[in-house]
Amino acid sequence: MPTLPIPGAQKLLERLRSNPLTVRVLRNTSYVFSASTLSAVLSMLQSIMAGRLLGVEAFGLLGVITQFSSVINKITSFRMSELVVSYIGEYTSKGDKRHAAAVFKIAGLGEITSSFLAFLILLALAPLGARYLAKDPQTVELFMIYGLSVVMNLISESATGLLQIFDRFRTIAMITVAQSIVTLLLIGIAYIYKGDLFQVVLAYLVGKGLWAGSISIAALWTARAEWGPGWWKSPLSLVLNRKRDLFRFAISTNLSGTINLVTRDSDILWLTALSSPLQAGYYKVAKAFMNVLLIPVTPLISTTYREVAREVAAKSWKNVRYLLRSGSLISAIWTVPASLGLILFGPWLVQIYGSEFLPAYPILLILLVGVIAANIIYWSRSVLLPLGMPDFPVKVGFIAAAIQIVGMLVLVPRWGAPMMALMMSVFFVINSTTLLWKTILELRRAEDDYPVNEIEE
Fold it and tell me: What residues contact 198, with CB distance under 8 A and at least 6 apart?
């Protein structure tokens, strides 16, 4: 094996390769990482073409329309992928296929119900979104058209969780890349033929539909392969004895998602409501570069969570600590140099969108502080779930969200996008560092209460 030229890099690589836990995380992450990295590049190209085609203000409107549907969808979402990973993973480890199938069935039915409910809410609120967020009542049809993406989701969250459980990370990766390519091609066509906001919205809608439909079909195929053709006949009564646990888990993850919903996931809506679509255009460009920083780390969340859940169930606390330290180290290897690159070359990169987007650079720098914290401690929320504390992230998120919202209401109307970026970074830092502290505390307590199993070598 060749020696790496960077001092200490060879030792680091050997450390990561020496433990089967890290090997599994890296193997599964590699599929999604490769796809996410490629998807990030394609998404950036999509964003650049859309920005150059539409201009700052219309580009901000695009962000309002797409985020409006996403936010409403998440209002009724119970983050079924996490529930599926936790409970189907538990039954699968015991070889209990019927109970595992029943959990997937109830998760899918719940998600379908929530998707249609979200669409009805969207139709009711679209006129208000057009008037008060887009500042243009004529855009109501665009809100409704893109709102179809909510219905298209159907069982996509449950499907993603099932594919993760059965190591179909490569399938997820292929679908992610395919969606990005199709969306890029459609936006490219709109760019070449000097299209407008409608064509760009339609391109994103088609991409969303392709992803959700493909993920759902792949999961149904996997369920048939793993549990047999009659898996869907498994009665829901099999898991009724755990209905309280399932309900508590789903509600906790929904509340946690709702907190993110009114802060992180609706930032563009807050900005346009308190300021203007023009400020949203600048902010959306800065956020596009932050997404590039976040996307390669995002796959680590699901792959690390799966391994951590297994080790917590086995009470292998050394393994849990090893996974968390190694995960943060892997994230830092990407995050630190990428952040330095954005600091040094940010002004030139922003101007790829057009010189009129240059005010986005200081916004980018402010956002960077919070994103670095979120990336390095990416596991801070999910690790508390298998430790039996799904409620704690909700409480912390609520406090951080309250601070952020007060700051936005006071500062954003006067200062616009830079203050929105500052409040977003405040939320990330408070949330991540507090959950890190709680995780360390709970692991110490668990080690005192339960025997410590040896680390796998």
Answer: 142
Predicted structure pTM score: 0.78
136: left (phi over 0), alpha (psi -120 to 50) or beta: beta
Q: Give the integer Cα–Cα distance in Å for 10 and 8.
A: 6
Q: Which amino acid is at 451?
A: P
What is the spatial distance between Cα 364 and Cα 286, in angstroms, rounded to a whole number? 5
pLDDT value of position 168? 87
CA pair distance 276, 270, nearest whole angstrom? 10
Single out the residue of 212, 277, 220, 314 nearest to residue 54, CA to CA.
277
Amino acid (1-letter code) at residue 107: A
Spans of all domains in the chain: 9-449
Distance, C-alpha 355 to centroid of its chain: 30
For 389, phi and psi rounded to 5 degrees? Answer: -130, 55
Give ∠ CA 421-39-202 in degrees, rounded to 5: 80
With tokens 């058209």, the residue in question is 145
| Other residues' Cβ atoms within 10 Å of the Cβ of residue 444 | 11
Q: Amino acid letter at 367?
A: L
Question: CB of 367 within 8 A of CB of 290?
Answer: yes
Q: What angle do CA 410, 413, 417 make, to 5 degrees?
A: 105
Report residue 105 as tokens.
Answer: 């069935």
Residues 362-421 pLDDT 10s: 999 999 999 999 999 988 877 887 787 877 887 888 898 899 999 999 999 999 999 999
**CB neighbour list of residue 32: distance below 8 Å, 6 or more residues apart:** 169, 172, 173, 176, 298, 299, 302, 303
List the chain residues with pLDDT less than 70: 1-33, 36, 252-257, 450-457
pLDDT for the residue numbered 371: 94
For residue 128, what pLDDT is reported?
A: 95
